[in-house]
Write a structure and sequence with these properties.
The chain has 403 residues and is of the alpha+beta class. It contains ten helices and eleven strands.
Length: 403
């Protein structure tokens, strides 16, 4: 018996069934957008959804080429192979696709003779209609979907609006993928530049030093001055040992990448391995309650601290060091302190470390400064009153400062 106020479930009518199909299509689209970042696979999977939703016989999706004058085929379904071969690249003003892209509007046509003439195939003469949906983001057209129907029929207005909504979501995904590629490309180029700088500031200068000493040793040998030749040979051997040590350190740094568990965990791992590798006791002092850093910021901080600790191991002569994390007055401070000999910084001598005047790469200061600039920050280097030295990275705590 029916309860008051409760009606039996009604069978979905044609309109309700269309609504359900639209909801399913949007659900599929949301799933596709969440699953991956490959734009072409994204468009290919979405093409099947749009063909099914429209009841089309076939479909293709194109993207605008980098020259802005053509559209390139990304995916197709239901078209004969010979047609697909002819549709790989078309001008931006080609037929109804060109009209839809030019106007940034959904276009429908019952006349496909232009497509038949362009491909040289009679396939399009047997079709009844085509529907073109442009892909755009903030007024910038990125490509287009073209759906082909076996018979002539008008596309319902609500279906056109749905396709338009889908195309806007896909356009945004395409733009995000493009920005991601550009960002990765810029990051890669920047990292390569930093590596080149590191190699130049260490190995290249060491090799130049050895070349000069080898020439002086040859002069001594030609003059039969064996003591002077042996002196220069010893200098070359010492420089070669230093270059080999620097190379191993560089390789170790390049192999080390940010820990997926975050900056604090990565620095703790550095601390754990530091004593075993260098014999120097390293204390880890985290005075922050929570680090609110982006992934890019964490990577820059990690590499700066890694370089600072490498300098302690190479040059300080320290027995103890400390890695300190602080958040003071709206700025982050990451410091490495040691009880060693002190050093030169920015070309100015600090303390009496005469034996370190030959440091070839200025303790990696140039590399650290470049990374600090990405954080809108700076590197501070001082000798401590009680002995030893401190390298400190300082940058604003606001999220997004590194952008």
């Amino acid at each position: 018996m029916n309860q008051p106020g409760i009606r039996p479930l009604q069978t979905a009518g044609p309109a309700r069934e269309a609504d359900l199909q639209a909801l399913r299509a949007l659900s599929e689209l949301t799933t596709v957008l969440a699953e991956g970042h490959d734009p072409e696979k994204l468009l290919e999977r979405s093409l099947g959804t749009m063909i099914r939703l429209a009841g089309a016989q076939a479909g293709i999706v194109r993207v605008v080429t980098s020259d802005g004058a053509h559209m390139r085929l990304v995916a197709s379904q239901g078209l004969p192979p010979e047609v697909v071969a002819q549709e790989q690249l078309v001008p931006m003003d080609c037929g109804i696709c060109g009209a839809a892209v030019s106007d940034d509007a959904v276009r429908q046509s019952f006349e496909l003779r232009h497509c038949a003439a362009h491909t040289g195939s009679d396939y399009f003469n047997r079709l009844g209609a085509t529907l073109v949906v442009p892909l755009s983001h903030i007024g910038r057209v990125l490509g287009a979907y073209a759906l082909f129907f076996a018979e002539k029929r008008d596309t319902p207005e609500e279906l056109g609006l749905l396709f338009r909504s889908i195309s806007e979501h896909l356009g945004m995904a395409l733009e995000n993928a493009r920005l991601l590629r550009e960002n990765m490309r810029m990051t890669l180029m920047s990292e390569r530049q930093l590596i080149a700088n590191e190699v130049h500031d260490s190995l290249a200068q060491t090799m130049a030093y050895m070349k000069i000493r080898l020439a002086m040793m040859q002069e001594a040998l030609d003059a039969s001055e064996q003591p002077r030749a042996l002196k220069h040979a010893g200098e070359v051997q010492q420089a070669l040992d230093g270059a080999y040590s620097d190379l191993r350190e560089l390789l170790s740094q390049f192999r080390n990448r940010m820990d997926p568990l975050g900056l604090v965990h990565a620095l703790q791992e550095l601390k754990t391995k530091f004593h075993d590798r260098t014999g120097i006791e390293l204390a880890f002092d985290d005075r922050t309650t929570d680090l609110d850093l982006s992934v890019e910021e964490e990577g820059q901080v990690f590499h700066i601290m890694q370089e600072a600790l490498a300098n302690v191991a190479r040059h300080s002569g320290a027995k103890h060091a400390r890695l300190i994390l602080e958040l003071v007055g709206g700025e982050y401070r990451f410091s490495v302190e040691d009880d060693g000999l002190g050093f030169y910084a920015f070309g100015q001598r600090l303390g009496g470390a005469e034996q370190h005047s030959h440091l070839r790469h200025h303790l990696g200061v140039n590399i650290m400064r470049e990374r600090a600039q990405r954080l809108n920050g700076a590197i501070e280097i001082v000798n401590l009153p009680e002995g030893g030295a401190r390298v400190r990275l300082v940058f604003p705590a606001q999220r997004g400062a590194a952008a």
